[in-house]
Amino acid sequence: YTEAWDADKKSIHVMPDTPDILLAKANSANISNKLYVQAWEEAKKKGYDMRADAIPIKTAKASRDIASDYKYKETHEKEKGHYIGCPSAKEDPKLAWAARAMALQNDRLYKKAYNDSKTHVHIPVDALSVQAAKDCQTLVSDIDYRQYLHQWTCLPDQNDVIHARQAYDLQSDNVYKSDLEWLRGIGWLTEGSVDVVKAKKAQELLNDRLYRTRPEQLKFTSITDSPDVVLAKTNAMQLSDV
């Protein structure tokens, strides 16, 4: 009974252009790793042609040379020792440059031309600048500024001479202090001086014993007929048992 059904189940045929079949094929192609790398595998089989003068190769080489520490120091290493054995220091460019820099910085060489030309200046003796310099030197000269007066010869009893002597005596420091000469060598005690008296007064003001008088030192006599004393006596008699 079921033999025909079982045989019919094995002969089922689905059309290949149905939407479900097409969707399944598309999903299989999307998730297939083989189809994903198929183009890359075919490109690898074809090989490649990269010339040595290609731009990417040159860029890679230049980047490698720049990044390489050996290439960075190659020029410096090649220049080492090239300046050894020069016939003279003038032929060495670095030494010549250092000598030039030292000469520019040397103050003696910088002023050599000026010092050599200082003595070759010729100025007329009657030039205005020379005359002005001489007049200025005369004004600032201490020798010309101080002119000591000569000794006048006059009578000692003239009024101007007497007045001048009195003025000199008043201005003289020796005469000004002559009234204190008799005090030299005289002993002097500080007792009674202004500073000592001031110190004693300050000590008395700060003395607590003199500032505060103790109660037991005060003479006190109580009044017997004062109201408070009479009241106290009356209260004592009223409270007395006797």
TrEMBL record:
Keyword Transcription regulation included in the entry's annotation? no
PROSITE patterns the UniProt entry points to = NEBULIN (PS51216)
Q: One biological process GO term for this chain?
A: cardiac muscle thin filament assembly
Is the keyword Mitochondrion in the record? no
Matching entries from Pfam families are given as: Nebulin
GO CC terms, sorted: Z disc
Q: Which UniProt keywords apply?
A: Actin-binding, Repeat
Tell me a Gene Ontology molecular-function term this record carries: actin filament binding
Protein name, per record: NEBU protein
